[in-house]
């Protein structure tokens, strides 16, 4: 009897195994949606850090959306900032940027009237009232305005923008700040291409063949006329050298800023070429006055018709403003016309405003060409 029961058990077990094999694998039901993992710190937007002109590391959790560009020499800052597209909505405050010939930013920023416009000599409290996420200042403003702002917990980025090398470095800093490194590289390449073209053209000019050039900054504050020369480290001196000239004033006793010189010193230098710069008025008008002066008529540069008005539009092109590359190009052509006989200065100007500020031909003709001044073709 036990044998029969054992046989039946084996038979039933065998049938179960055979039926399971014929039926194939058993499907396991899957959940209709995978469970969502809880967010972690790694999934949050990454912050970034940059190093400013003073070597300070400034860290941001995200790209700042409210930026103030203020303080002295604000035009040098603002014109670099606006080389980056789509910055207008992020600029909430600017210091006045009019040297006497107009305000360029008001021309290129359609939202300019909606921004807070502060004085150049502004206070930390006035800047803080605009509620900025970040403030851009010239490095020379660190003690007077920067430290008080930092004391209020506001992030400050310092820029130099005084020499070609500093310009390239500070453009990279702005690229980090705006999280647009590609644009920073594009603008840097534009400047480098123009500098390389000039340095290559004048590379074979011997030292004694370079014209002795004198660049003079004219001002008549308080009704008193003064002529000034730049220190060796200023961009005006560097531009003369890069353009293939010899700064006639380079060996003089110079200060840290512009140095006033009298006519006797100007006559002693007896430069081959003289370039007149004026910031609050037309340099062309100044040159016409000088040409009518008997003292100036006796100078060799005047006699040989090489007393020039440095070009300007809203701002003079000799400054460490974005336009310095136009000034350098014009200066090289004046010093070495034979080496730049094919230079089309009108094309250089339109290309500059198109590349940096996205002004088309119509905008250029309307807003820039009417205000061009100086010894241009």
Number of helices: 15
Separation, N- and C-terminal Cα atoms: 125 Å
The parts where pLDDT drops under 50 for at least 5 residues are 1-44
| CATH architecture annotation of the largest domain | 3-Layer(aba) Sandwich
**The named CATH superfamily of the largest domain:** Nitrogenase molybdenum iron protein domain
Largest sheet features: 6 strands, mixed
Average pLDDT confidence is: 89
Structural class: alpha/beta
Given the C-alpha coordinates, what overall shape results?
A: globular
Reported by name, the CATH topology of the largest domain is Rossmann fold
Helix and strand sequence: HEEEHEHEHEHEHHEEHEEHEHHHEHHH
Could you tell me the strand content as a percent range? 5-15%
User: What is the radius of gyration?
Assistant: 33 Å
Residues in helix, %? 25-40%
CATH class of the largest domain: Alpha Beta
Question: What is the subunit arrangement here?
Answer: single chain
How many distinct folded domains? 2
Q: How many β-strand runs?
A: 13
């Amino acid at each position: 009897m036990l044998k029969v029961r054992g046989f039946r058990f084996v038979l039933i077990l065998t049938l179960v195994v055979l039926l399971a094999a014929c039926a194939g694998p058993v499907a396991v039901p899957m959940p209709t949606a995978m469970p969502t993992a809880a967010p972690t710190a790694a999934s949050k937007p990454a912050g970034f850090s940059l190093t400013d002109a003073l070597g300070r590391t400034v860290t941001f959790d995200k790209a700042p959306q409210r930026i103030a560009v203020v303080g002295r020499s604000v035009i040098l800052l603002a014109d670099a900032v606006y080389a980056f597209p789509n910055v207008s909505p992020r600029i909430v405050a600017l210091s006045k940027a009019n040297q006497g010939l107009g305000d360029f930013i008001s021309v290129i920023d359609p939202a300019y009237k909606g921004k807070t416009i502060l004085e150049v000599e502004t206070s930390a409290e006035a800047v803080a009232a605009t509620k900025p996420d970040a403030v851009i200042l010239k490095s020379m403003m660190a003690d007077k305005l920067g430290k008080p702002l930092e004391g209020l917990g506001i992030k400050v980025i310092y820029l130099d923008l005084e020499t070609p090398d500093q310009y390239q470095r500070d453009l990279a800093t702005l690229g980090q700040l705006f999280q647009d490194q590609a644009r920073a590289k594009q603008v840097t390449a534009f400047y480098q291409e123009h500098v390389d073209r000039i340095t290559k053209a004048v590379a074979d000019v011997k030292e004694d063949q370079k014209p002795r050039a004198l660049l003079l900054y004219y001002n008549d504050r308080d009704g008193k006329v003064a002529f000034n020369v730049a220190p060796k480290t200023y961009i005006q001196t560097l531009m003369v050298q890069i353009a293939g000239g010899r700064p006639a004033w380079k060996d003089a006793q110079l200060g840290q800023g512009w140095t006033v010189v009298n006519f006797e010193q100007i006559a002693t230098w007896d430069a081959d070429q003289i370039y007149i710069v004026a910031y609050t008025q037309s340099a062309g008008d100044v040159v016409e006055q000088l040409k009518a002066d008997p003292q100036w008529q006796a100078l060799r540069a005047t006699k040989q018709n090489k007393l020039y008005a440095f070009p300007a539009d809203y701002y003079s092109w000799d400054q460490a403003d974005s336009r310095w590359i136009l000034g350098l190009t014009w200066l090289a052509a004046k010093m070495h016309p034979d080496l730049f006989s094919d230079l089309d200065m009108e094309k250089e100007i339109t290309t500059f405003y198109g590349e940096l500020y996205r002004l088309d031909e119509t905008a250029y003709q309307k807003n820039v060409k009417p205000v061009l001044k100086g010894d241009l073709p």
